[in-house]
Design a protein that fits this description.
The protein is mainly β. It has 4 helices and 17 strands. The two termini are 43 Å apart.
Length: 378
């Protein structure tokens, strides 16, 4: 009996020691509400919708992430994250089990971390995630509506390296061997020949020090040689910064995109899709040598009190001459207003209104959305 008790105590001790060196966290978001939306043209044609809207402020999801100490300052880490439609329970991201994130990596405070798998690109993480008052949420209100390379672009088969934070600076570089994104050259899949897959470089540099934040990113997508877009590539760079004055946090950014665009995953964030593909295709990568535009945002977050804040932004896509001539594309301008109220640290109420002129760069097209919802995080 004493041996049994001793063995149990030793096992409990070893288990405690192991758990002290590793951790796994289960987390998730439930977000739902009501929304009115309309898209119309000056000639009177249009469509409206009123009903449930889900994943507006934050996409509905559940996931797990963890870290384990390997000794000598080295850690193994992972994240898997599944997106779903709260309105009907269906999986999102094309029905993938872990479509939002699926990666494993190694980390050390001295040299940084390296990750392999499916993850968002650095423009989505460091530019939009760091500067946008709407934090990549709220559909057409978010910064990705104009900066399409950061419209929550998720890439497959990414090898990503991020440096440690040094005096506020951090750099990152990633390469996707096969993005898994569809394009106007067709779905490339995963061909044995690397060149027969769409590939992408994602790079970034950010700086955070007290109230000041700045970021610069670069994205380059290559068309698969096995498609009609063989030899084509899309190029994009962005730069921006924000400063928190306590009474208001102001952010600005500018970007250039040439020879196509990323459709991304945010509602309404399709950039020039209607101008370049009148059939309404929802291609995630559009290679088009005649397409080029500049992107702008000026945004502000205004704390009302300790539990509520007002969100404001103006964004614009300004097509270049080639795009205007080829598609009669016009400047797309969006005016956005939101308000959030925190019931607790995990549950908040939100309401929002946004209007986009020359929506998707189509002349006289107007898109308006108004909504309210509640978000719970666990």
């Amino acid at each position: 009996m004493k041996k049994t008790l001793l063995a149990a105590a030793l096992l409990a001790g070893f288990a405690g020691a192991a758990s002290a060196q590793s951790s796994v966290t289960l987390y998730g978001v439930l977000d739902g509400g009501l929304r009115y939306s309309s898209v119309s043209l000056a000639n009177g044609t249009g469509v409206t919708n009123f009903g449930g809207a889900y994943g507006v402020q934050s996409g509905n999801r559940w996931g797990m992430k963890g870290v384990e100490s390997l000794g000598n300052g080295n850690n193994a880490m992972f994240q898997i994250e599944s997106g779903f439609d709260m309105g009907n329970g269906a999986g999102q991201q094309g029905g993938r089990l872990f479509g939002r994130a699926s990666w494993v990596g190694l980390q050390n405070a001295a040299w940084g971390d390296v990750r392999l798998g499916r993850m968002t690109n650095l423009t989505s993480d460091w530019m939009v995630g760091g500067l946008d008052p709407f934090a990549a949420g709220f559909g057409q209100l978010n910064m990705g509506n104009a900066f399409t390379s950061g419209n929550t672009v998720r890439l497959d088969n990414v090898l990503m390296y991020r440096t440690p934070v040094m005096s506020g600076f951090q750099a990152g570089l990633g390469y996707s061997f096969a993005t898994g994104l569809t394009s106007n050259g067709g779905t490339t899949g995963y061909g044995f020949a690397t060149s027969n897959n769409s590939r992408q470089i994602t790079a970034g540099l950010k700086y955070a020090n007290g109230p000041f934040y700045a970021a610069a990113t670069y994205e380059k997508a290559y068309a698969a040689e096995s498609t009609a877009m063989n030899g084509q590539s899309i190029n994009n760079w962005n730069i921006g910064g924000s400063y928190d004055l306590k009474v208001v946090k102001i952010g600005v950014a500018y970007g250039q995109t040439r020879d196509g665009f990323w459709a991304g995953s945010g509602a309404g964030g399709t950039g020039a899709t209607l101008a370049t593909t009148p059939s309404g295709s929802s291609n995630a990568l559009v290679f088009a040598p005649s397409v080029g535009y500049n992107s702008y945002i000026v945004g502000a977050t205004i704390p009302v009190n300790a539990v509520s804040r007002v969100l404001l932004s103006w964004t614009m896509i300004a097509p270049n001459t080639n795009m205007k001539d080829a598609y009669n594309a016009q400047n797309q301008s969006s005016f956005n207003l939101g308000y959030t109220y925190d019931f607790t640290k995990r549950t908040n109420l939100y309401t929002y209104v946004g209007q986009t002129q020359n929506y998707a760069t189509v002349d006289t097209a107007k898109s308006t959305i108004v909504g309210v919802g509640i978000r719970h995080q666990f």
